[in-house]
Each structure stands twice: as C-alpha cells, then as structure tokens.
Amino acid sequence: MIQIPKGCKDMLPADAYLWQAVEDTARETAQLYGFKEIRTPVFEHTELFLRGVGDTTDIVNKEMYTFLDKGGRSITLRPEGTAGVARAFVENGLQGGAMPFKAYYLISAFRYERPQAGRLREFHQFGAELYGAAAPTADAEAILLASRFLRELGLGDVTTLRLNSIGCKSCRARYAEALREHFRPHIGEMCEDCRERFTKNPLRILDCKNEGCKKFTADAPSMLDYLCEDCRAHFETLKQLLTQAGVAYIVDPRIVRGLDYYSRTVFEFTTDLIGAQATVLGGGRYDGLLEQMDAKPTPAVGFAAGIERLLLAMQAVETPLVERLPDVYVAGMDTASRQRALLLAEELRGQGLIVECDLMERSLKAQFKYADKLGVRYVVVIGENELNMGEAEVKHLSTSTAERVKFGEIAQYIKNSRRF
Ligand code: HAM
Question: Which of 228, 309, 343, 351 is the most buried (most CB within 10 A)?
C-alpha cells in the first residue's frame, strides 16, 4: 500500500472538532479586530519567495518545494503566507484603498524540513497581516490579536510572549558590523552556513542551531544596544502599550526570526509543553517588504501561528473543548420501519438536531450498542406497531426511561427534555 509522504499528517474525523475549534476561534478573534479573510494560491512564482522571504534564509536556501511546470515556469509551493498576501495586496490595487488594510488567512504551507514532533513538511497556519500603519499601536494591535487568540484556545497561561526589536535598515547595518567584529576571530571554527551568513547576513548566525556555533553567540552584542532613536522610541511605546493592555512579555534580544523581511518589532509566543519546536506563533513588523518587491513602500506588521503546534499544546493542557455529539439515533426493526427511520431522521435534522439512523441493517440490540458508542442521548425506535400508530418510542439512554411520542412531535419533545 502506498504511504503518506514523509512529514505530512492525515487529519482524521475523530479529531476534527479540535481542528475546527482552532479555525473557528481564529476567524472569530480576527473578526473582533476587523480583519477579513484573504485566500491566495497554494503556489506562486518562485521569484516571489526569493524576494519576499529573502535569499539568506534557510526557508529559501534549503526548504522550498520548487518545480518547473509544464510551461517551464519556476513554481514554488508557499512556505508561508506573508509574501502571497503582499503580492495580492499590490496586484489587486488594494494599496490605493482605505488604510489600514487588515487580512487574515488559514492556509497550508510547505517546507522541506527534517520532520519531528511539531515540525512537518506540510503544516497549517493562521496568520494575520496589517498594512499601512507605521505607529507602534499597529504592532500592539497585532500582538493583542495573537494574544487573545491564544487565550481563547486556553493557552494564555502556558505561552510566553518574547519580544525584540531588530531595528531599521540603518541601525541594523551598524549592528551587523558589530556582530562581524564579534564573530570574526571565531568564524573559522563555525559551521559552513554561518560562514556564509557572516558575509550575507550575520544576524542569522544568532539563529544557528549548531552547538559549535551557539557557544560563540552566547556573548554576542545585543541589537537593543544599537537601536537608533526612532527605533528605540517605537519599541518603548510598544512595550508600554502592552503593559497597559495587561499583556505580559519578556524582552528576548536573541529573537531574530527565520525570515529576512522584518524590521523593528519581532515577537514569538513559545511554550514548554511541546518539546523542541516550542514556538507556536511568530511575527513582527516588515516595513521594507513591499519596496523589496518593487512596489510602493508601505509599513506592515503581522504574525502566523502553527496550527499543529497549537493542537499539541491544547492536548497537553487537556483542553476543555468537547465534540458536539449526535442528539438522536433513529432505530428501525424491519425494512419498512428502517426506511421510515431514514425519513424521520431527515425531518428531525430539518429541525436542527444531529441525527443518525441505521444504514447497516443491524439488529435492534446492535443498534442500541452503536447508538451508545456514538454518545447519543435519545434513541427513537420504530417498528411495525409504531408505523401503524404514527408514533415512536423515545428512549432516554441516561435515565433508561421511555415515552411514546407522535412522529410530528419528536423534535419538540427532544428539544424540551434536553433542557433538563
Ligand atoms: P514562521 O516563524 O516561519 O513565520 O512560522 C510561523 C509559525 O508557523 C511558527 O511559529 C510555527 O508555529 C509554524 N511553523 C513553521 N514551520 C513549521 C513546520 N515546518 N511545521 C509545523 N509548524 C511550522 C512565518 O511564517 C511568517 N510568515 C509570520 C508572519 C506573518 N510574519 C509577519 N506576518
């Protein structure tokens, strides 16, 4: 039998209620902040990610699913959502519309990474992007949305917000020079990737997972000591706003993020509950991205959460979320009553109940067993007698009581007794 590709995961119906709860919460929370949904293609021209995500990142250098289509174009499955939203924002003329522009997305994304718990090759994200606002209130709004979303999922107490500023182009250039000074004496002992990062983008060295390199990053200079006056003021205001809004954070100067487009604010929400892949949500400001894509410069800020990691965390805290179980099972005893059971089930569904009936031609005993397995509270039994009388026996499984109810009154009867 052919097996699922490495790093992918089937989402099975038994867990759908959890998955859907995350998506519903994402939609509802985004809506509270005035974000509307955007859908962009699963694949884009490779060039978009080279420019948008950045050619010094691992994502672009090692992890993209890139292929030539039949027309000979280089196509890439999206490794994240921000670049596609940025393209759509510009291409559809939304840059000329009312600002701020706020959009959210629920997407699958693809990265050719080494799979482990919480790290997949196809994974899913809830992301939100806000364009047009340069003020720190916009950074605060994105973080408040992210924070409320995690709280709504029951993860407020088990996640930590880590905040940093990586400055603007000019202060980052000074910082990059300071990092080069710091790493220069050791660069010969560092990994091949870091040697390349040293010339192209030394900030990336801070993100290296290699133990041999980590020992040189521990005492590296901090970006926060190199921020220019404007970047410092922006960061201070953001911290103040978060404190006033009651959102706790720690400043973590090690956060540089794995994508090149950030400027000023970067942030991550991490948890101790899910192992090494501890970041459930990450984002930041990216004022330079549109310019990098040859569009009119527009300030922007956003984030994305990894849905699989959220689910792992929710399972670890034993989420109080419960599945909505069927309300009623309609049992039949012979061919005629089974067919009536199907039609009665259909009538009850029309009145808002979740209903199942026998499609397997099981014995009455086996139908009760199955109804119990489904977790229903009522079994409606129809036999020859009931067909003749136009009424059914409604059994209340938890109290083992039964009552005879006319076919047309069953939905109301169940709705009334369900309240007790
Ligand atoms: P990212 O940090 O690359 O940022 O991904 C965001 C989140 O997606 C991560 O924190 C993680 O939870 C999840 N994630 C990433 N890779 C994987 C994987 N291989 N398996 C499972 N989950 C994964 C971005 O994607 C940016 N576009 C976020 C952003 C939006 N910044 C501004 N706007």
Answer: 309
